[in-house]
Amino acid sequence: MGALDFARYVRPGDLVAWGQCGAEPCTLTRALVEQRHAVGGRFSVFVGTQWSDTLQAAHADAIDFVAYTGGGQNRALAQAGVLDILPSHYSQFEQLIDVDVLLVQVAAADEHGHYSLSIAHEYLLPFLDHARVVIAEVNAQAPWTHGSRPLRADDFDVLFHTNRKPLESARAAPGEIETRIAQHAAAFIEDGATLQFGLGAMPEAILATLADRRDLGVHSGMFSDAAADLQTRGVITNARKRLDRNVSVAGVLMGSERVYRFAHRNAALQMRGTAYTHDIGVLSRIDRFVAINSALEVDLTGQVNAEAVNGRYVGAVGGGVDFLRGAAKSRGGVPIVALSARGREGSRIVAQLHGPVSTPRVDAGVIVTEFGAADLRGLTLARRVRRMIDIAPPEQRAELEAQAHTHTLMKR
């Protein structure tokens, strides 16, 4: 990396961005951090979920950190008070973020001279088009994934070759509570449904309960180990999709080497940009689209907090609202928010949220906990309160009933 002088490419005041999770071009990002003072002034970085420890609070002496999420290694930056959050829907990144320098990890060129954005395409595609400088780490071990357009050497200003294992995330093993939640959620997923799902033990548990389904499809912001397993076993075929028939669609791979191996040169998985994966016009055209998202807490009327707990920013607005609205418009679609009813601080079904409203109650669909499912679609406030109390921890239900009139505008 001694030959790559970042002071030639990064200017004071610039915004630098790179891919999240396993898509981080670690060789480049670590060199940038090491050379941060050579830039000659402060600059900013925009990051997604970080799996590496590249960014440290001490680096705030020259770098301003901006992120859409407090997840992953970003939590340490948030706790140190050096992380600034962009509260935005995933679908709006292209309009809101103006990147000057883009760092990407790409897979080596194929026999046609085409490079691949590999693990993450999503919001990197518009950044690739508009950044002043694009520097690519060509990683010999990065999976070559099919995308929306071929990339050639002249799409990049600098190509730097490496050979290292991409970052991975250990597979989250579902416990008893996640399994019970998954069983309640699975009741809303029929043969031929097309799924969107997030990261973590909860979605993995839900996917694990679907082994007896037929012809499931995937149109999701991410693609995981569990999804790779189901597609390998023939449960996910995408055969009944009107859009992208026979093909799973995702924006980023999130998991272990398992999903990277599955995705490598696999034409049955197409990686797309956020403008496609999160577009409500696209989602509304997918029949039986089931959006599966998580939350930190949900109030008795269906308002969702997916961002903060105890004053700490640990989540994100993310694509939750995009996908829930898309599922609501889909013919036969189901918008699902799944969470455990109990947390460290008590009930996560609350009379009043302790954090921001990430998803308004007008977008609430089906709320699932280990105690059942509350289908809030078409229900008045009073009926919502009753259904939500039914899926709260039993020991908290009387208290929630007593608080309901004060905090929910429900008639007495």
UniProtKB/TrEMBL annotation:
Hydrolase as UniProt keyword: yes
Domain (Acetyl-CoA hydrolase/transferase N-terminal) ranges: 6-154
Record GO biological process: acetate metabolic process
Residue ranges constituting the Acetyl-CoA hydrolase/transferase C-terminal domain according to the UniProt record: 255-404
Keyword annotations of the record: Hydrolase, Transferase
Entry keyword annotation includes Transferase: yes
Pfam families referenced in this protein's UniProt entry, alphabetically: AcetylCoA_hyd_C, AcetylCoA_hydro
Family membership noted in the UniProt record: Belongs to the acetyl-CoA hydrolase/transferase family.
Protein name (Swiss-Prot/TrEMBL): Acetyl-CoA hydrolase
High-level lineage: Bacteria, Pseudomonadati, Pseudomonadota, Betaproteobacteria, Burkholderiales
